[in-house]
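Support request, priority: normal
Reporter: lab tech (M.K.)
Component: structure prediction queue

Hi team, I submitted a job for Signal transduction protein with CBS domains from Allomuricauda ruestringensis yesterday, and the status page still shows it as pending. I've pasted the exact input below so you can check whether something in the sequence is tripping the parser. The sequence length should be 139 residues. Please let me know if I need to resubmit or if it's stuck on your end.
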Amino acid sequence: MKKDVPVSEIMTKKLVTLTAKDDLVTAERLFKKHHIRHIPVVEGSSIVGMLSYTDLLRISFADAIDEHEEHVETIVYNMFTIPQVMVNDVVSIASDTSIRDVARFLSKKEFHALPVVDNGKLVGIVTTTDLINYLLELY
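Reply from support: The job had stalled in the queue. We restarted it manually and it finished. Here are the results:
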């Protein structure tokens, strides 16, 4: 088994992102449209926060809405902004961090995604699902 494979080999490079000016209705639609659970919040090419689908579930009944349904209950979403709901103190990694180090780190933390940042620029995201899929390919 390869031990020093960089996370750049498995990270998602085609990112779905939000800005602090976007609303939570937009976020909810992006989560469902792209079948993802984490969206980096950016300002230009820099990450300023991370919004997870779980963050939305904490403030709404988003999981009760059918994923194909277009109508979204917006009353609760309009009470909050993305900066109020997102995680602000984002932990990130560099693209040359080994997959092993990423797995070790995520196994000890209570979150399931890490933004990948090189020279202050968001270049990808790696999730526990990416790690599991990588392991499945090995076996």
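Helices lie at 24-34, 53-59, 82-85, 99-108, 128-138. The chain has a mean pLDDT of 88. Let us know if anything else looks off. Ticket resolved.
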